[in-house]
Amino acid sequence: MMRLVVASAFACAAVVAIPGRGSGAPAPAFRISFAGSAVQHVVDTKRYIADDDGTCFARELINETARVTWTAGAPKALARVSGSTVVGETVRDGCGGPPERAPVDWATTVACSGRLELVGPAVVTTTRTKKALVVIVVAPRVAPSVGSGCSLVVRSTELVAHVSVPLAKATALKRGGSLTFAVGTAHPRPGDAYAPHVDCSRSKKPYDGYKVVDTCTDDLSWGGTLKLTRA
């Protein structure tokens, strides 16, 4: 298995050689590049319910959207994630009831806005079988910038794709020729485990006089391309 980690500031491609078996011919080499974009939307509502009458006296709504864009290759290039952002807001109110029922200084609206910054490299892994070159690409990990006021956690572990390239097609390419494969949630392949919709609700233990009911949804979709080019 060949594991190539992207590590520089510019998008360039991995160079992978496919050695022949029992042949004296030079091994064909290929560049691999990976580009994509993702949208993740999280809505988390916490309702504070009084034990005495079962009414909601305070509510917190977090609504945030992340947009991730990247290009990556290896072994000499770090992924680019410029243009990746997260925006939204946190709203605290009295569940639509009288303001005096809410805790003192509870009602407020706080904006969330910032860049998504690179916190981990992209990774390209290749494996050869008898009939195929199996390429696994992992998008770079990103997180909201310090001071953005955003709490969204990007589900980077799902920005992954597995592509099996038939050796016959790969080796038939002329120099400069390429094969491009669509990847992402609309194009799952063996090895891909995507969860476009996740229930991120978290149960909380009751407090003295009230309980917290949490309702949370986390939706993620992404698409991109993996390009294999004969060097």
What is the element layout, followed by pairings?
Blueprint: E1 2-5, E2 14-17, E3 29-50, E4 56-72, E5 85-93, E6 108-120, E7 123-128, E8 132-138, E9 141-144, E10 160-166, H1 167-172, E11 178-184, E12 197-199, E13 210-230
Describe the structure.
This protein is mainly beta and 231 residues long. It has one domain (2-230). It contains 1 helix and 13 strands; from the N terminus they run ββββββββββαβββ. The chain has one helix at residues 167-172, and strands at residues 2-5, 14-17, 29-50, 56-72, 85-93, 108-120, 123-128, 132-138, 141-144, 160-166, 178-184, 197-199, 210-230. The strands form 2 sheets. Strands 2, 3, 4, 5, 6, 9, 11, 12 and 13 form a 9-stranded antiparallel beta sheet that branches. A hairpin with a 3-residue loop joins strand 7 (123-128) and strand 8. The two termini are 20 Å apart.
Brief digest:
The protein has one helix at residues 167-172; strands at residues 2-5, 14-17, 29-50, 56-72, 85-93, 108-120, 123-128, 132-138, 141-144, 160-166, 178-184, 197-199, 210-230.
The main pleated sheet reads as: 9 strands, antiparallel
How many domains in all?
A: 1
Order of helices and strands: EEEEEEEEEEHEEE
**Number of helical runs?**
1
How many runs of DSSP E, i.e. beta strands? Answer: 13
Helix content: under 10%
How far do the termini sit from each other? 20 Å
